[in-house]
Amino acid sequence: MPPMLRRLDVPMAVALSICAVSNGMASAQQVAQANQVMAAFVYRLPQFVEWPADALEGSDALEICIAEPDPLSATLEHLLDGENLQDRPLAVRRLGRSRNLDGCHVLYVSADAYRPDTLLERAADRPILTVGDAPDFLDAGGIIQLMVLDRRIRFEVSSGAAARAGLQLSSQLMDLAVAVRGGPP
User: Fold this and answer.
1) CATH number for the domain including 170?
2) What's the distance, CA 39 to chain centroid?
3) Which residue, 157, 150, 151, 152, is CA-closest to 178?
4) DSSP letter at 45?
5) How far is it, in rounded angstroms, from Cα 184 to Cα 163?
6) pLDDT by residue (tens digit) across 42-76?
7) What is the C-alpha to C-alpha distance for residues 174 and 169, in angstroms, rounded to an integer?
8) 127-151 b/e with 16+ CB inside 10 Å = b?
9) How far is CA 121 from CA 42, 97, 101, 125, 138, in A?
């Protein structure tokens, strides 16, 4: 299991900076640190997901798509450089104005994204792992919601949303979640 998910401990300074970001009182350095931590989680989560075979057919890469505004792509590109998963290179794609989800395997939607509900509706029945940090992300149909609890990055999972997307989440991932909504799929 990757060290980031095994421990889920985040240094206090980074966790506090994430809290500050959510309160709108963060410096540019604190925002950058918070984005690095979030990017590390988005980078590691696909290792614990099994996509249906047809979801990966014809894909040269496993694409992590980032909705605008785009807080993570630069950090993710650095983390993913040369990395592979399921015999495919990992790649980052910024969703521009078209917000085309074709080819996306992971979709990160920040709390500041423009109309996240529309993106989640479009992704709902597709084999796309949706990850976000808005407080109502799971209620809006997302699969994994990142949050700060007790000065650590934690996450909740919607097993129902994962099942609708045709994704199988590993038991390790489910065990690490602070909450699993929807019960076993």
Assistant:
1) 3.40.50
2) 8
3) 157
4) G
5) 9
6) 999 999 999 998 888 877 888 999 998 878 888 88
7) 7
8) bbbbbbbbeebbebbbbbbbbbeee
9) 20, 17, 11, 8, 12
Structure tokens at 107: 């979709």
The answer for residues whose C-beta is within 8 angstroms of residue 1's C-beta and 6 or more apart is 172
Whether the Cβ atoms of residue 136 and residue 95 lie closer than 8 Å to each other: no
Q: Which domain holds residue 16?
A: 3-181
d(CA 44, CA 121): 24
Sequence-distant (6+) residues with CB within 8 A of 44 are 2, 4, 5
Rounded distance between C-alpha atoms, residue 174 and residue 178, angstroms: 9
pTM for this prediction: 0.81
Q: Which of 68, 59, 143 is nearest to 103 (CA)?
A: 59
Q: How many domains does the chain have?
A: 1
How far is Cα 157 from Cα 141, in angstroms, rounded to an integer? 11
